[in-house]
UniProtKB/TrEMBL annotation:
Pfam families: HSP20. This is Hsp20/alpha crystallin family protein. Residues 24-133 form the SHSP domain. Gene3D superfamilies: 2.60.40.790. It comes from the Bacteria. Belongs to the small heat shock protein (HSP20) family.
Length: 133
């Protein structure tokens, strides 16, 4: 049985992207983030569905900044119409003071990348003993 419905035609191809972007001059391929800071850790969650975390997601920390980069390539013989976003997605955020970038951990579950950066606790004051010799 063939459909009698006409093929869907997009009148303004960029309109959906424009409406989906909260800021007119914002990054086209922005990822959505959630941040949480506790006394022990900074936790960043990034919405990245459909990415291969082993090959296409990279996390770096440098000069007080945490950067997540993800890439998705379109299939050259893909669908005629797609509202998926392809290309490079990148976000950088400032890390809190005393973030221990040597102990960063990350996990990817159900399209969500969760990056945890421990926060070093301020050093305890050194006790000075009074006594002879």
């Amino acid at each position: 049985m063939t459909s009698i419905l006409p093929r869907r035609r997009v009148v303004f191809p960029g309109l959906i992207d424009w409406l989906d972007n909260p800021w007119l001059f914002g990054e086209r391929n922005a990822m959505r983030l959630e941040e949480n800071v506790t006394k022990d850790a900074y936790v960043l969650r990034a919405e990245l569905p459909g990415f291969d975390p082993g090959e296409h997601i990279h996390v770096t920390a440098e000069a007080g900044m945490l950067t997540i980069t993800a890439e998705r390539e379109a299939d050259p013989e893909g669908p005629e119409h797609s509202e998926f976003r392809y290309g490079t997605f990148c976000r950088s955020v400032s890390l809190p003071e005393r973030a221990d970038t040597a102990k960063i951990s990350a996990r990817y579950v159900d399209g969500i990348l969760e990056v945890t950066v421990p926060i070093e606790q301020p050093g305890k004051p050194v006790e000075i003993k009074v006594g002879k010799g």
